[in-house]
Amino acid sequence: MKLSKRLQLIADVISKYKQGSVLADIGSDHGYLPCYLVKNKIITCAYACDVAQGPLDSAKETIKQYGLEDKVFALLGNGLNPILDREVDMISIAGMGSYLISEILEEHREYLRNVKLMFLQANANNDHLRKYLFANDWIIIDEQMVKDAGHIYEVMVVTARQNKAITYNRKDEEFGPILINNQTPLFKEKWQKQYQVYEKIQKYAKQEHSYEGKSYSCHFNAGAAFSPHDGTTYSKLRRNCEIALQHSKHYAYGKLTLYNQDIADKRNQTLRVLHALKESINNNFENFSLVFQPKVTSSYHALTGFEALIRWNHQDFPSHRPWFLYSQMLEESGDIIQLGDWIFEQAIIKLKDFSRYDKDINMSINVSYLQLMDDKFVDFIKEKVTLHQVNPYHIIIELTETSIAKNNELIVNKIQQLRQFWYANCNG
Is the pTM of this model over 0.70? Predict the structure, then answer.
């Protein structure tokens, strides 16, 4: 009897690791695996189980063909149900999705306490199956790969975890604790294929798509790091992938970014700057100041108002650096709300001062989209305008294009609320 490469690998690991002599093959289909194992005297007895009558009939034919009617028994039923009244030493489940395998195991956890070994082969989402096993006190003692008909399969040898000190992390779930250590050519081929899938998605995403008569385009970003050059531990590789991803989002729109030292240095510098910005905010806005850029008519060269502009003068960082680079950092961290509130209040205090010399002077104040998204934004504006007794007619709130794009409906609602307050309180 000749098996496929996939089934042959399962048979080989069963032969190598077997404990006991009775095996139940769940989802047996044609019954090739249990018949092969019994015929080659690897085990003495087997159950070929399937939920559908058609595959079960095929298994019966295979059993009859090799004269194994007294050693291999075809059973109809879902999951482990056909063997609940029988004693088995080992269980094999192959050719299914990982979610289905997990469900089968979860349904009869008590029965599995008496099973010595499981041989599992999921067709996809192996990380989900590993996560389930690790969370339920199973341990993978071996895991091997095979390429069959153009697809790479992973076969797990699983037993109960006796040593509770053994722990697993996300790397073990994603790649397999045995496979990641060995990194066979098939392992590398599989993950290279994953990268090729990414490239195909990227190519497709760049194309223009249409829906209900409208054209759309989309993109995504990705970051990657490679062992051992970029790290030898999962945590370090993951961190470096995240650094590369952040760089891709900011500087390589719609592309894959590979981690390198220059990116790391740039990221570290960004973190140092962000830390200093946060310190300045928390220390009563130390090192921050406002400058006021005059606004003059082009025809009469008459002064109409000012635009409030923030400046950050920190001894460790260049004062000439464009503010929008700092504002991007603060928007990502969420600290722009606190700073933005301070800017608004300082600007209207200055407006009140300017109004003593020219009651028609205006003050333009930039507002971040995060401020607009804040539920307290409108109430804050009302409170500060009332507190400092400034005429809202002379306050101009400037919104960036980004603000409008984030949530148009919400922005319009906030603007309408402010407009009503403006009209109700202006005296100009």
Answer: no
Rounded to a whole number, what is the distance in angstroms from the first to the last CA of the chain?
96
Say whether the peptide bond before residue 185 is cis (omega within 30 degrees of 0): no
Q: What are the tens digits of pLDDT across the range 97-152?
A: 998 999 999 999 999 999 999 999 999 889 889 999 998 989 999 999 999 988 99
Range 258-262, long-range pairs (CB < 8 A, 24+ positions): 258/223, 258/224, 258/225, 258/226, 259/223, 259/224, 259/225, 259/226, 259/230
Helix axes 336-355, 323-333, angle to 10 degrees: 130
Calpha distance 132→100 (Å, rounded): 11
For the chain, the domains span 5-192, 220-259, 270-425
Q: What is the pLDDT of residues 361-376, one digit of tens each?
A: 999 999 888 888 888 8
Query: 5-192 belongs to which CATH class?
Result: alpha beta
Coil, helix or strand at residue 147 = strand
